[in-house]
Amino acid sequence: MTWLVALPVVIPLVAAGLALALAKHSRVQGVISVVALTAVLIVAVALIFVTHTVGPQVVNVGGWAAPVGIAVVTDRLSALMLVVSAVVLLGVLLYSLAQGLADGPKGAPVAIYHPTYLVLAAGVAMAFTSGDLFNLYVGFEILLAASFVLLTLGGTGERIRAGAIYVVVSLLSSLLFLISIALLYGATGTLNLAQLADRIDALDPGLQTVLQIMLLMGFAIKAAIFPLSAWLPDSYPTAPAPVTAVFAGLLTKVGVYAIIRTQTLLFTDGTLDTVLMVAALLTMLVGIAGAVAQEDIKRLLSFTLVSHIGFMIFGISLASDVGLSAAIFYVAHHITVQTALFLVSGLIERRGGTTSLVRLGSLAKVAPALGVVFFVSAMNLAGIPPMSGFLGKAGLLQAGLEDGTPLALVGVAVGLATSLLTLYAVVKAWNKAFWQEAPAPLPEASVPRGMFGPTAVLAAVGVVIALVAGPLYSYTDAAARDLRLQDPYISSVLVDDGRGEGQSADAQGGDS
Amino acid sequence: MGVEMSPSLALVLAVGVLVGSGVYLLLERSLSRVIIGITLISNGVNLLFLIAGGAAGGPPLVGTTEPDQMADPLPQAMVLTAIVINLGITAFVLAMAYRSWQLHGHDEVQDDLEDRRIARRAARHEEDTRADDVGTDLATEAAEARDETEEEHSLETAHHGPRLGADDTEAERHDRGENT
């Protein structure tokens, strides 16, 4: 079953090529994208079963086992991330297709939209399954290049302005990542994550810390951890609603994933855990303070996104099984709920003609279904008890209490305060957009069913996560245990004979 | 392995100069300078990879060089990948700079919305100058800062609401139809 591992990258890339070749037929493009992403979703679900029952799945590209060859690895964490990202990518794609239909030929997505979107999907999957730091870098670059194009789609003034900041900041983080890869290679002679885990302990502790700081800086920019988060609320809201939704759901989480991977596999001595925890607390507070001050619903949601990244980093920085497990659960919850909220904000903009809370109003009367979806997702984000947000936060707070250090206890308090402030911010948005009378009559517009459907489904997925929270938590527990033990990962990547099935031509006669 | 591992000083200096001047250019406002800076840093990093690969050796082809005389092929493969990625990114940023020049007549990275809102508010309440500001006050800075809010008819404001991040007064003005 190992051949499954490469499919989440291969399928979207092939489909992207096809879609680009068929650029003149936007309907065919849509069909290709839907088929490809559905296939990815099926593969991802199959992978989650295989990795959960059998163990980590490894593909040795060209038959050469690591460290000679390049490994593509899926363990429990990667498989879960693949499934959640496939659900979100497919949902957002259906939403954007319906938007294209509703807007007619004039508003249909430009020909480049589908290929770029598929490349983005491939890049995300590649980052999640890479067993090699340089491959991780390439995955990041693929998804970043695609995100540059998607963010500046249409090239309007506002998007170019936001895009310039986003592109420069992203490139800076990539350069930091690339420099740390070069340094790591110089110091250890390998970039395979499993082999690095073995070799990095032999390095000087000071050098280890430097390498860890360099990598964390690169990833922290991508994950939007305060003080490296200022680019996010400025750039995301300008993009088209589906693009913002998929960025908010996935791109920052790829950074979080990379932090989880490196913190559990490479840097396990916990030198920077305190720094990471302080950064997490500041991210929560600064992010939510920004959200409270916003008058535009998209910007408000972008700030809550920054704030809630802090929860995940808090879980990682606890460096315990429970903390990590809760962080992984929180990532799965947050991807779905944040995407659903951004899709709702796109529908609000459609129905109300604006996303400014100053001028919206009475939406609960004119679009009650929209109100329900927004309310459920917003309460989910804030962490109201029966929902998955509550379970994720409860897990994190419990892990913080178990840790018991003063800083972790402060973290618990900050987490609670952030939840309350999130509730305040989203209730404010709810009151202003849905509950109060609109200051001026809203324009006559309708919400297309095709756009509402995927939004409602994603919001429902956020709720369903709560229903399956028991199995999901035992899954993330197992994932966290694997990550902290390191062994299942390393032993399945580094096979005993050290070269796999690869055949080399005879050295003397070889011209191949 | 008997390979000499201490790096060449010339290469290390070259990396320092490339990355240093790249960082300087990266801090400029103009996108064309930024992209030159990014290219310089990437080239510096490529050299860093060469250093990481150890001393130079023969071509790493089986049959032409003895295995212990070979150069490390892996950094070369990675540098090649990095060069290709940098090429694509450079093309994209240049296109973006050109588009910015088409729209605004310059290719400068503009202030973000929060900065502009703060500057505008300060311009309205002149007493709100920052304590650590010695020479100019925020009001004059805001007036001097190149800012697309000066342009009334951008593509987006034509049929959407007031632009994102517009503050209350702007939104009201837009409602009264003064902006479009």
Most extensive interface, residues per chain? A-B, 51 and 50 residues
Helix tally of chain B equals 6
Which regions of chain A contain 5 or more consecutive residues with pLDDT less than 50?
506-512
Number of strands of chain A: 2
Structural description of this entry:
Chain A is an all-alpha fold and 512 residues long. Chain A has a domain at 272-489. Helix content of chain A is 74%, strand content 2%. Chain A has helices spanning 7-21, 26-53, 76-107, 113-129, 133-151, 157-188, 193-199, 205-223, 231-235, 241-265, 273-292, 297-317, 321-352, 363-366, 368-382, 388-403, 406-435, 449-467, 469-485, 487-493, and strands spanning 57-60, 71-74. The radius of gyration of chain A is 22 Å and the shape is globular. Residues 506-512 of chain A have low confidence and may be disordered. Chain B is an all-alpha fold. Chain B has 3 domains: 9-104, Helix Hairpins (Orthogonal Bundle); 112-146, no CATH class; 151-180, no CATH class. Chain B has 6 helices and no strands. Chain B is elongated, with a radius of gyration of 25 Å. Residues 130-137 and 148-171 of chain B have low confidence and may be disordered. Chains A and B meet through helix 5 and helix 6 of A and helix 2, helix 3 and helix 6 of B.
